[in-house]
Amino acid sequence: MTKGVPMEFLDLVRSKNDLVDVASRYLTLTHRGGNYWACCPFHNEKTASFSIKPDGQFYKCFGCGEAGNVINFVAKMENIDFMSAVEMLAKNAGLEMPSSEQNEEMRKRKQQRDRLFQILKLTTEFYANNLLNNPNSPQAEYIKSRKLNEETIKKFQLGVSLNYDDLPKFLLKNNFKEEDLLAAGVVGKNEHGLYDFYGKRVIFPLCNGFGDVVGFSARTIEQSPEHTKYKNTPQTPIFNKSEILFAYNFARELKKQHLLDSLVIVEGHIDVITCHQAGITNTIGCMGTALTQQHARKIKQLVDNVIICLDGDSAGSNATYKAIDVLKNEGLRVKVVRLTGAKDPDEFIKVYGKEKFLNFLENAIDCVDFILQDSAKKYDLTSNADKTKYVSEALNYISKFSTIAEQEIYLSELQQLVKIPIDALRKSLTNQTNKTTAIKPELEQPSENVKNKYILDSKIMFLAAILHKKVKNFEQIVGFFEGNDELSELYKFLMEKIGNNKDFNISTLFDNFDIAPNSLIDKVINYNFPPDEVFNTMLKDTIKRVKIYELQQQKEDLINKMNNSTDINERYDCLNKLKELDEKIKKEKM
Q: What residues have CB less than 8 Å from 472, skipping those under 6 apart?
């Protein structure tokens, strides 16, 4: 069993899901030198250092060090756990997940997740039926006021909660337990019992990338300070607000159809929905929350180009600055739209129409241009003190977010605004860049014992030879792996596979070990072999040298023991053993 799944089933899942085929759905791969290359999806880079080895069915990024097999890749790309990734790949290959052989903990976790998804699906249908059957309710009237058609309402599965009592009763009648309803985040509990967590609100279901409802955002229609405008699902086993983007599932479908080259990011649910109803379906929402690095990574999985179109108030302006920072750090190309004549995209489209909104999107300005223009409004540029503050802020953004060629363009624009000689701005930018990119000196590491390092390097070489099937005689090296460290555990794993005549490859390791970048096992996997004739000679010499080192270590231990002993017989016994060790060392050196 591996993480609750039989090893044989994992082998089957991996064999039915070629890593190159799966990765090509997310990345643009280039075939070079027998491997496939792409820019790493797990960190920001401009030069492709993410490599897939088809024969070993594993990936390795030589930039950030991330490595894994097809299961690890899908889990990371989709932000899902190991079991969910296995289920997804099994479904893709038409395989049934084993159930009877799963360990109890994993089985219970899967059952709970399934129950939560069922509860949320049923709750979504309940709210939608409320809207359908109560068209004159205050909540339904609010939806009518937003001029949403029936097709749009169905697409986004909109619904309403009419009171605090009906939902808990409905779900309990469907044989769900109280603890499951609380865990799903759809009900709360007080001294009077269970109540609808989103009572008397308009309901916006929130979906994961596959279109499954994982939570809700609910808007009040009460004009009262006692009622917060939006109430969102708390953290649950299937809902993490740091990863959910409104309408991301629709963008993902466009990507699958090769119909997506950019994303428009707006703030509110209604902004997203209105854009979709107008046919601008590459729109997603950050739901009034700050964009996180997880959000940016999910966006990067779909596109390289982003247009930010947040509200025009001060809060929207601050959110735009923060979003630029997060998105640029993930390597995205970012433009900004600042609408005029309306407070948000919903109002703009309803007042001026789709075509004018599209015109604004087409004329979106680069994010650095936006910052130079927008931040200038905060300062009095006739004041030397304010001008100094503005220049410092502007240069900070220019140094962070632009190439050397772009910097000249932005410096010219800045020079026009502040009337400072461009050479002075260039010098200030150089100083700013040096501060930003200064590398902190590494802490001095204690010197490593040369002998122990050689033995460690030798163990890595031996295991790499076994893993890559370059050696068959293991008797000579069995004594090197008698401990409980990770290399010894890897040796035992490989010996078990060989002893049971079971095939193995590098991909197999990622299901059995937690392999961190630059860990010892990572070094085994990525061992750089010299030509075979050189390696065979090196292997023989290394076995001999390691044996000599171990014999010499035994000799040192005996000498210490003899020097510290006052027993004449014990000292004599040590002396005889030392003579035997000297003979063995002499023999090994021949």
A: none
Q: Say how far residue 473 (Cα) sits from the centre of its chain.
A: 41
Residue 483: the pLDDT is: 67
The tens digit of pLDDT for each residue in 190-231 reads 998 999 999 999 999 999 888 899 999 999 998 776 678 899
The alpha-helical segments, DSSP class H, found in 218-304 are: 248-256, 269-277, 293-302
Domain positions in the chain are: 7-92, 104-238, 368-436, 450-589
Q: Are 291 and 323 in contact (CB under 8 A)?
A: yes
Task: Give 586 or 358, the one with higher predicted confidence.
Answer: 358
Please check whether residue 337 is in contact with residue 364, taking contact to mean a CB–CB distance below 8 angstroms.
yes
User: SS3 of 531, please?
Assistant: coil
H helix intervals, 47-149? 70-78, 82-92, 104-133, 138-145
- From 433, 434, 416, 415, select the one nearest 425 (Cα to Cα): 415
Candidates 168, 190, 4; CA nearest to 82 is 4
Candidates 247, 242, 251; CA nearest to 290 is 242
Tell me: pLDDT of 271 over 90. yes
Distance CA 340, CA 178 (A): 49
Question: What pLDDT is stored for residue 544 in this prediction?
Answer: 77
Which amino acid is residue 349, in one-letter code? Answer: I
Q: Topology of domain 104-238, per CATH?
A: DNA primase DNAg catalytic core, N-terminal domain (3.90.980)
274 secondary structure, DSSP code:
H
Fold of 7-92: DNA Primase; Chain A (3.90.580)
Cβ atoms within 10 A of the Cβ of 403, count?
9
